[in-house]
Structures are given as C-alpha cells and as structure tokens.
C-alpha cells in the first residue's frame, strides 16, 4: 500500500545519513505479514548495560504489544535488550490471543539472542482486529539475527512503514568532556496521529550511558514538547510507542547532561516533524505558535483545537487565509480566551487584533502567506505567559482517498 | 453558494407542510448582504404574551448577536417579540462595531413593529470577521413588516440558509384538554456543526402558553438530547442559536404538560436530524447508539469520539466496515472502557465482542450494512447503565471541496 501512494510533497529529499550507534545492531526482513515484496519486520539487539525508556499511548483499547512493553519497562539492564517490530498488523483488539502472539515472538527472539524474555520488547503496526500471523514472523528471526548489522537503521526504518510515503530518520552528535556520543532515531506514522503520551512507532538509540530512571524522566519531559505537540487527524492510535535505548557503549555518562538533552530534543523534534510532513494527504506543514495564554496547558489546548479543526485544515488546503475559522477554533477549545484581547498572524502578517480584523490587513498579504509549503500561524491570547507550539498539516482530498478507499 | 451545491442525497423529498402558528407572522426578503438573487433576511413578529427561551453557543468567541440575545432573554413578555435573521455574514469577531450593527437593526425593527428594543432578537450567519452591512438589512425592514404573513415559515427557512442544500422544517400537533396546539420550527446548518448548548440557527414556534421559566428549562433539557447529540465536523460555530417562542395565542396552557414535551422533542429531533442529513458532503446518515457505559455522560463522550473521528467517518464514506477504527475512537475518548467487555454491532450484525472479532462475524455481513444510506452503529461498553444516542454523517471528498475551495 505504501508503494501505491505518491511521496509526500513535504518529504525531505532523501533519508539522512545516520551514524552507527555503539552497542546496537539491527536487521530487517520480509515476513509477509500483510505486505508482499517488501520488508515488514525489523530486529534491534542491544548490548548488556542498555537502559530502555518508553512512552506509550494512553488509549484504553491499546494493543497487546503496548501493554507488554509497559509491563517490561524498568527491568534491570545487565542483560541487554532487543526490540522486534512488524508492520501490516497491529495485534490490537485481538483478545487474549494478542498476548499469546507477543509471548511467542518474545520467546523466540529471547532464545536466539540469548536474552531473557523480560528484555525483549515488541511492537506491531497496521490493521486493527485481525490475528497476528506470528509464525511468519518467528520464521524470520533466525535470519534476522544472522544479519544483524551496525549500519541498518535505514532498512529498519523502511520495514516499519505502513501508510508512510517516506522512511523517517534523524540524528545528533554531542561531545561531553572531549568524548563523542551519538543519538539516532527512526519513526513511522502518517495517519491516526494525535499522540497522547507518544506517537506511532519511534525508536531512538544512543551510545551514551544514562541512568534508567533519569532516561525515562527525560524521555517523558521531551515527549510532551515534541511528539505530544503534533497532530495529523486528531485520532490516537492503539499502538503508539516511543522507545529510547541508551546502550552506554561509548563509555560516556550523559545522565543529567544539558547538551545531551538538547541533542535528544532536536532528534525527537525532527522525527515528530517528519511524521507531520508525511501526514496522510498533507500538502502544507503548519506550525501553530500560541503565546499569551493563561497557562502553558491552556496554550496547548488552543493549539490543538486549531490544529485539529477540519475547517481550519481545509482552509489551509485551499490556501484561504480564513482567520475566522481560527477564531472559531479558539472559541470552542474550552481554554480561556477574550475576543477583544487576542491577535492572530499568518507568518509576519498581522491579521486580527482587538476583536476584529487589523486595520492594516490586506487580504492579498494573507493569501500570499498561504501559498507557502510551510505556514506559520501565530495566536497571542493577551492573557498571560502561557506558550506552546503545535505542528500539523492540512486536510486534503488525498486524506479522504487514503482512508475511505483503503483499509489500512 | 447554496445554489451551486447539489442537494444532499439524504435530504427529505420536499419541505414539509407546516401549520400556521397563532400569534406568529413572518416575512422573508432579499437584502443583498452577500448572496445575490435570493432571500437572505427573515423577520418573525409575535403577539404580546409571547414567552421566549433560547440556548446559545458556549464559544468564547461567540458573535455580537448571540451575546445580545443572551442579554435579552427572560425579559417580560407583555410586549410581544420579534426575531430578525440574516444570512451571508455572521457578524462574529467584528469588534465593537458588531454590537453597533445589532443595535441599529434592533432599533429599526422596534420602531416599525412598535416593540421595545429589548424584545427584538437578531441572528446572523455566514462569513466570520467581516463588518455586517446593516444598512442593507435596515433598508428592507419596512417591506418585511408590510409583508408579514401567518404562512411564511418556508420562505423564512429558505432565507436563513448558507451552505445548506435544503431548507429544514418540522412540526407537531398536541391536543390538551380537547384543544389543539401547534408546534413548528425551522433550522439552518450543515457545516461547523458540533453544538455545545445549541446548534446553528433554529427557531421553533408554538401557540401554546408556557410560563417563561418552564419554557427555558424544557428547551435546555431537550436540547441536551437532540441538538447537543449531533455533530458534522466537530467544529462549533460562533453563532449557534436555538430559540423557542410560545405565543400563547391558542389560549391553551401547556406548562409542564408531558405530551407537549414529547411533541416538542419530536420537532427538535427532526430538525437536528435534518441538519445532519445536510452535513457538508454527507452521503450517509449515521446513528451511534451507546449503551452499557459507566454513566450517561461517559456514553456521550464515547458517542461523540466515534462520531467526530475522521478515520471512522472516512471508513463510513468508503462503505468499509472498519470496526477497528471504532475501537480506536473508544480507546482515545477518555471515558471508561474495557477492551474485553465491549461489543460492537453494525445494524443487527454483531461484529466484535470479548476483546476480539465475533466468532460468527463475516466481513460480507458487515459490508452489506455499510452500503445503506442510514447506518446504525451500536457499542455496548459492558460497564454500567449509561446510554446516549448520537447522530453524524460521513466525511467525503465533497466536504473538502466545499471547505477548501470556498470561503463560507
């Protein structure tokens, strides 16, 4: 299916060159879970000493692998860890059989990699409600293990795609006390994107050494500013998983290091933006900057109300500077707003202020902003210091085509 | 603009024959506010003794006429009342000038109809953020007043349309102690429909006599079960207004009468359903029946989460019995759910139960349900006695066309 969709016009020109991460090896393969003629399974194996942190969907109908990962998080790190991901079937709403599939896969990986099953994490993405043909995945594990390679982040990123039109990767390098550590991550996701705690499947690896509890706290904190601030269609997946693995193989301790945090945030933001750029049917990348809200959480409520409004998103698709719909979204959000205090700008063009259209605003200036591929929409509530930036895409005919004409 | 859109395939065959309401006269006219070659303004004038109740949008950026109506509700009834509505411009987010327009129009109506301005209600619907050319409306008031007629509900319903593809009306008759009272209403609305307290513009008239406070309480109660249970696109208008006027001209007191309540609810539900049937781009009318929720309010949260999900709505447009997306919507709603207790049916076809697809379910049975124009989707949470029924439509290419290609 991914093959049949045109590459997003907002996609980067090519997959980035990613560094190898000491202590990490990966492999991808074709298990034929649903897709034919492409890789659909990836295995990552990490050295002893790896700390693993994760953030997952809060959906009450979340998938069996998500529940299993949550239960396994925080285990002791001496034994190393593995992650196995398949695309094409999400193993969600598959009853008790879902856990059986997880257990069978984790056992098979544990046996071949010589890890305890408690350190084997799995994820599945694709159609909901169909039994996962886990035997097909297990049949590939031996060859995956034999093919493990330090430089396989790109094939791994390709293997986990569903309706994605491009594979997503990002990296950063940090020097701590003269020593270099690497951070690299991959992601998939383009529809059912309105993360709550996390989005889709995202795997980030670093050879830094970071203490387990600190790693988890850092991941959660940055997730709130990155993946939890994007939305494609307001729908939250049953499989959203974000994992961060610190192998420690560089020998450099980055626990509590500010530069490491910044680099990690840059990688997470880059991947989050790539998910939006591959939003189903997207033709515009939209950054919504909220300032002057009564609180940061109010700012986020306003930002997501605008980002999720079908009428705002269709106006953007139509290159219509329809700021009235932005006013509507602010009004319905439920967070504090005062009509006469708020101001709205498209890019650098002030459109509305003091409860009305700005006296200097000319429709052609607003329209010119809307023709861009990347649109910045600024809203100042005039109430306080609350800020939040949210990213989304437009809502186009192609979104309808993808979701009405296919079962993804 | 309404002229250029094809009539909804879910529209009733014709506008219903509506009774005249004793104590009510109406007229429609063409003020040229925005649309050319059609009526765009309507005036309703009611006799002394009329009680007026209203429910309005809770939007924080609601329009000047909405704020004005809210301020005027509950005034004394001895003087009668009037309602003036224009389409083409919503007079929302028009700063202090918005209230000036309201005042000018209300004063002009008051003068000609010999009513106090405190009893003249106005409403405006259409584009947000453009100054209302109220002089054009005022120029029509004399001829509107001269043309007042007991049998003009249909032209009034036509005059208030914006992106509607058909005019909406409904009526009921109740006999109380051998005497007949009439209830008749009109509505407009097809996009920006996710009412909160009320929806779009709805005017209901009865010749019953109902005490003011009781009338307001009854309207609010029934609104929660009708207009507040519909959604087209999750976006809430800045102009939503629902008004109920009891002229008392039949001489029959219906205060607290259960049959009157039932008839009123039937009219309100009929109008609410017509708004959904005219949902922008709609090809399917969808009833979502939630049972077994932890509470009625939880049931409503689940119902609206399903009804507002773009992925559920596009699946319905594609006639895809994609119940996995229903599971997703329940999971993200935030209300209580247990994967292993919930069951989902399309019409009479049990699709999923006990955390998985039903053993007897056959895809072709689900697919057959989806080919219907009117689809019933049942979800039982298995948790308690909470129930709610919600109505929506599908999300189609035509919604994108209407909202990306036009400024409504």
Task: Summarize, please.
The structure is a homodimer of 408-residue chains. Chain A has eleven helices and 15 strands.
Proportion in helices of chain A: 25-40%
Mind telling me the CATH class of the largest domain in chain A?
A: Alpha Beta
Say what oligomer this is: homodimer
Strands of the biggest beta sheet of chain A: in what spatial order?
A: 13-12-11-14-10-15
Mean pLDDT of chain A: 88
Main pleated-sheet profile of chain A: 6 strands, mixed
SSE class of chain A: alpha+beta
Biggest interface, chains and residues, is:
A-B, 68 and 68 residues
Secondary-structure element pattern of chain A, one letter each: EEEHEHEHHEEEHEHEHHHEEEHEEH
How many structural domains in the coordinates of chain A? 2
Classify the fold: give the CATH topology of the largest domain in chain A: L-amino peptidase D-ALA esterase/amidase
The span between the termini of chain A is: 8 Å
What radius of gyration of chain A results from the CA coordinates? 22 Å
Number of strands of chain A: 15
CATH superfamily assignment of the largest domain in chain A?
A: L-amino peptidase D-ALA esterase/amidase
Q: Uncertain runs of chain A with pLDDT below 50, 5 residues or more?
A: 195-199
- The amount of beta strand of chain A, in percent, is 15-25%
């Amino acid at each position: 299916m991914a093959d049949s969709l045109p590459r997003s016009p907002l996609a980067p020109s090519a997959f980035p060159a990613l560094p190898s991460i000491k202590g990490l090896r990966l492999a991808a393969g074709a298990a034929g879970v649903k897709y034919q003629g492409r890789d659909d399974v990836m295995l990552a194996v990490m050295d002893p000493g790896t700390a693993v942190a994760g953030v997952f969907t809060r959906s009450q109908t979340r998938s069996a692998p998500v529940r299993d990962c949550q239960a396994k998080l925080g285990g002791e790190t001496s034994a190393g860890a593995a992650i196995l991901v398949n695309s094409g079937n999400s193993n969600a709403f598959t009853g008790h059989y879902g856990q059986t599939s997880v257990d069978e896969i984790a056992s098979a990986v544990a046996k071949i990699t010589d890890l305890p099953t408690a350190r084997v994490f799995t994820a599945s993405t694709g159609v909901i409600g169909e039994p996962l043909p886990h035997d097909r995945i297990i049949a590939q594990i031996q060859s995956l293990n034999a093919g493990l390679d330090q430089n396989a982040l790109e094939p791994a990123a390709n293997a986990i795609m569903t309706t994605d039109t491009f594979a997503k990767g990002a990296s950063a390098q940090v020097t701590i006390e003269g020593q270099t550590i690497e951070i690299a991550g991959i992601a998939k996701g383009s529809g059912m994107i309105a993360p709550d705690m996390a989005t889709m499947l995202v795997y980030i690896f670093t050879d830094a050494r970071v203490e387990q509890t600190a790693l988890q706290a850092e991941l959660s904190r940055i997730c709130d500013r990155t993946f939890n601030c994007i939305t494609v269609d307001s729908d939250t997946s049953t499989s959203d998983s974000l994992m961060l693995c610190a192998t420690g193989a560089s020998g450099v301790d980055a626990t509590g290091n500010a530069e490491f945090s910044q680099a990690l945030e840059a990688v997470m933001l880059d991947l989050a933006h790539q998910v939006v750029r591959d939003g189903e049917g997207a033709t515009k990348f939209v950054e919504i900057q909220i300032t002057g809200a009564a609180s940061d959480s109010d700012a986020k409520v306003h930002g997501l109300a605008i980002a999720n409004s079908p009428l705002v998103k269709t106006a953007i698709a139509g290159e219509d500077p329809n700021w009235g719909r932005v006013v509507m979204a602010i009004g319905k959000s439920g967070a504090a707003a005062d009509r006469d205090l708020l101001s709205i700008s498209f890019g650098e063009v002030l459109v509305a202020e003091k409860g009305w259209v700005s006296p200097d605003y000319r429709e052609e200036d607003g329209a010119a902003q809307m023709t861009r591929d990347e649109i910045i929409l600024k809203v100042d509530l005039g109430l306080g210091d609350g800020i939040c930036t949210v990213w989304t895409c437009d809502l186009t005919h192609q979104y309808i085509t993808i979701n009405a004409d296919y079962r993804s």
